[in-house]
Give the backbone structure.
Amino acid sequence: MNAVIETQMLIRKSINIVFNAFVDPLITQKFWFSSSTGYLEQGAKVEWTWEKYHAVAQVHVLKIKENELIRLEWGDPKTKVDFIFEKVSAMETYVHIKNYDIPLQDQALIDFVIDATGGFTTVLDAAKIFLEHEIEPNLIFDKFPPFESAH
């Protein structure tokens, strides 16, 4: 079985703003990971960290087409992820994420599909909130325990 995970979202910002939000880690860390070792450029190898979860991902940028596509290989197991950007209007961008080449089978594949679908959906939701309203939504941070009290 060749599973492909897909999620998508309309973000009401120009395509260059939305694309840049995914390649510039100083912006991306406001809605996705805690830190990154670098900017996404074709051929780059960067490390993304989610400090709360003590998680690190090695990310290899396979292809960049400005304002169109970011293709990555990452994770354990290694899979490919395409971020596809489509201009709908001057102030609307449709972002489509596809995760594929998943080398798993049976229950391991089902578990991966559920986790990755939820994860990428949360990323797009958080990106939409941040880019449209300039609110750091903390959706990734708040997704799993332990939760930190605001008091």
Q: What stands out?
A: The mean pLDDT is 95.
